[in-house]
Amino acid sequence: MFAAACGAAGAREGSPGFPDTDTRRRGAVTVREVSVSDPDASFTAVDALDVDSRGVVYVPDTYQQRVTVLGSDGTVLRAFGRRGSGPGEFRSVRSVQVLPDDSLLAYDPSLGRVSVFRPGSDQVAYSVTLGTSGQVPFDVWRTPDNSAFVALFRPQFAFVPGADFRNRNDHIRLLALDGSPIRDLLTFPSKAFVVADNSIMPHPFGNEGFARLDSKNRLHFIWSDSLAVAQYDLQGRRAGGFVLPYRAPEITRQDHADALAAIPDAVRARFAPALQDSLHERWPAVRDVIVDDQDRIWMALAGSTRQGTELAAFSANGTYLGSVLIPAGTDVRRVRGNRVFGSRMDDDDVPHVVVYEMRRPLR
Please, what are the domains in the chain? Predict the structure, then answer.
């Protein structure tokens, strides 16, 4: 089933169900920082994390082939994993998922392997190898009822003569617990990249699709050009959704300059023309999507990186629950209860995990 974009980005903003930007920001909940990871964590990247029932944070580090465990105050409790292909070893651990009993699932796409660790343990309880048919998932989540895996398959870039990167598609597939395929659920355009010669980088203003699983086995799909959610069951059947009017902010010269400045010096000249040629008039509507422990759908609205991010929360039926303002420079990774877990760079460009607490509940 192809999940098409719903195309509401140009709609007039402001409605009884979703107020305009000024109204939302005036009524938004602010946050206070409650902890930041200890420097001893020594992260090289914080692209994902998850949180267990005690507030313990698990952070996979792809480049160090390990998972670091943080206490609720940011102190390092332990770290486990090392480079290798044996039990408890990783080649490039991408993501972690805390399961309902506080077991931890870690996914390594280089090995195509899911490893599950018992609560509080660094020893592997069991593992499953995926992609034995030749296609390895980009990322994997276990369903809340422990009946299957939901897997994201993303095509790789192959720099060969005549290669065309314009029509790449991602696929969401349901896999059995032994890794065998059950059915395809969704197909949608791949995340936009800027391509220059034989180099690639994520497009800072490009669109992408987000597929998020909730506790009721509903799959929520959002294409980033609009505030539109399409819901599917694990049979691949459309099960609901909603669309809200919203007009994303214009991309300014300052936004363009900031995007160029974020490209490493060594390759900036190479990417600058390609970025200029692919500039859009407006930002995507959505930068990221999170489904929290209460099945609230949080959309991080895209815009200037110099401004704090607005996280807009919705129920599964599209009721607007309110917004939370997150300080600039923070990438939100999880929301649990009244706490927001994210990552940010310090002045030396070292990543840290930061935890914020909402100053008051949403409505």
Answer: 21-358 (2.120.10.30)
Report yes or no: 65 and 83 within 8 Å, Cβ to Cβ: yes
- What's the whole-number mean pLDDT along residues 284-289? 97
For position 12, what pLDDT does the model report?
A: 53
Tell me the pLDDT band of 131, cut-offs 50, 70 and 90. Answer: confident
- Pair of tokens at residue 104: 């931890």
Asked if the model's pLDDT at residue 304 lies above 50, the reply is yes
Collapsed DSSP state (helix, strand, coil) of residue 238: strand
Average pLDDT of the residues in 260-269: 92
Greatest Cα pair distance in the chain: 56
- d(C-alpha 172, C-alpha 187), whole Å: 6
Measured distance CA(181)–CA(136) in Å, rounded: 12
Cβ atoms 299, 227 nearer than 8 A: yes
**CA 116 to each of CA 179, 276, 322: distance values in angstroms, whole numbers, following the listed order:** 14, 44, 35
Packed helices 253-261 and 265-277: angle between N→C axes, nearest 10 degrees: 140
**Whole-structure pTM over 0.90, yes or no?**
yes
Residue 34, classified by CB atoms within 10 Å of its CB into exposed (0-12), middle (13-18) or buried (19+), is middle
DSSP run (H or E) holding 141: strand 139-142
Q: How far apart are CA 216 and CA 231, in angstroms?
A: 11
> What are the b/e assignments for 252-279, b being 16+ CB within 10 Å?
eeebbeebeeebeeeeeeebbebbeeee
Number of H helices, E strands in the chain: 3, 26
Give 158's pLDDT tier (boundaries 50, 70, 90): low
- Position 197 scores a pLDDT of 79
185 close to 170: Cβ distance less than 8 angstroms: no
Give the Cα-Cα-Cα angle 309, 313, 316 (nearest 5 degrees).
145
Is the pLDDT at 16 greater than 70? The verdict is no
β-strand partners of 310:
325
User: Quick one: which of 46, 52, 51 has its CA closest to 66?
Assistant: 46
Answer positive or negative: Cα dihedral of 216, 219, 224, 225: negative
